[in-house]
Write a structure and sequence with these properties.
Elements (H helix, E strand, L loop, with lengths): L8 E4 L16 H9 L6 E2 L7 H4 L9 H13 L2 E8 L6 H4 L6 H18 L6 E6 L12 H6 L2 H13 L4 E6 L8 H15 L6 E4 L2 E3 L6 H12 L4 E12 L4 H20 L3 E6 L9 H4 L3 E2 L12 H12 L1
Helix pairs in contact: 5-7, 9-10, 10-12
The structure holds ligand G3I.
The site of ligand G3I has 13 residues, from loops.
Length: 325
């Protein structure tokens, strides 16, 4: 139904079995995989963890693609579009990068270049898009003082995009962040500045990824989403909802599940309507594998399938919305 509206995909991110948020769920994998792999449910996937620096270059110059390949191969085997995530990010970074405080600029340039050359090079041709730089902004829209920024300033962002473009010219180059879904927020303004900075420098950027980790009780409307997307689309050729989930205060009840349904529906409506919105990725569809309860105790049920594999009301909400457009 998503494709019928002009979107390329409605997808779901997933993790490697060993990394899935809750151990002890092995008995659920068969049913989980059945839903994940069903092309009628999801046409796209993203590894929630496996392609991150911590897993791909745990030691300097030592590369490991096992975790990332799990999801890349799943995409290949089930005919799904693969979004690749994330080349340069301050979190889940290997300790050897993060912990060192005396990097020279030249060393840091070399480290970023080597990382991207190897990782984007390894999956060359397989990634529809790469989240080249992830979460480079603070809550107020200024640059986050990550190890990359502290050594190189905004140059690290340009470098990351330039190297990725060179290594895998066919992949779409995205800037990806959370809290950049609202039309008038300072962080949205920051994201636009970041994109403009790249363009002014003549550096290629193709897309903005709005993560969209939303709250059921205070979510943007389709108009908000449209307004935000149109602002980005003045600068880049496409946008996507890259990590959609909608958290609820425990325990979920009928009212909060209705709000949640509306949150998912507003995103679907907006993406279907705006031509440059290529698709939506849910940040794991199965509640027990969601990151939300671990990071925000007292919040949960952010996905689309409950623990017992019954569907949240949002599933039919989205299906009926897309069907009816
Ligand atoms: O590696 C261990 C594993 O050995 C253990 O069995 C397992 C069970 O507890 O934990 C594993 O580590 C966890 C890892 O996810 C894999 O599940 C970490 O503790 C946990 O911190 C880590 O969380 C990830 C989080 O990024 C880290 O910031 C989430 O799964 C992942 O969904 C989340 O994704 C991020 C995006 O990349 C960027 N945007 C925000 C989004 C949510 O935080």
């Amino acid at each position: 139904w998503a494709k019928k509206t002009g979107m390329m995909y409605y997808g779901a991110a997933t993790d490697t079995p060993g990394q899935r948020e809750r151990a002890g769920y092995e008995a659920q994998y068969a049913k989980y995989d059945e839903i994940l792999k069903d092309p009628k449910q999801f046409g796209q996937t993203t590894p929630t963890n496996g392609m991150k620096w911590l897993f791909t270059e745990p030691e300097p110059g030592v590369f490991n693609y096992t975790e990332g390949d799990f999801v890349a191969n799943l995409a290949k085997d089930t005919g799904k579009i693969l979004r690749c995530h994330a080349l340069v990010w301050h979190s889940q970074l290997a300790p050897w990068v993060e912990a060192r405080t005396n990097w020279t600029k030249a060393e840091m340039r070399e480290v970023i270049t080597r990382h991207i050359t190897n990782v984007a090079g390894y999956w060359k041709g397989q990634c529809y898009a790469w989240d080249v730089v992830n979460e480079a902004l603070d809550e107020d829209g200024s640059y986050r003082k990550s190890v990359f920024y502290n050594v190189l300033g905004e140059e690290y962002i340009k470098l990351a995009f330039e190297v990725t473009a060179r290594v895998d010219p066919g992949t779409k180059l995205y800037y990806n962040d959370y809290g950049i879904e609202r039309p008038a927020s300072v962080k949205t303004a920051g994201a636009k500045r970041l994109v403009q900075m790249l363009k002014d420098a003549g550096v290629r950027i193709d897309g903005v990824g709005m993560q969209a980790h939303l709250h059921a009780d205070n979510h943007p409307t389709a108009e908000d989403h449209e307004n935000t997307m149109r602002q980005y689309l003045e600068l880049v050729e496409e946008v996507a909802f890259t990590e959609l989930d909608v958290r609820i205060t425990d325990p979920a009840n009928e009212t909060s599940l209705e709000w949640q349904k509306d949150s998912y529906v507003q995103v679907a409506k907006a993406c279907a309507k705006v031509k440059g919105c290529v698709g939506i990725t849910v940040w794991d569809f199965y509640d027990p594998f969601s990151w939300v309860p671990y990071t925000f105790p007292g919040k949960g049920a952010a996905g689309l399938w409950f623990e017992d594999f019954t569907e949240h009301p949002a599933v039919q909400g989205v299906v009926q919305t897309l069907k009816g457009l």
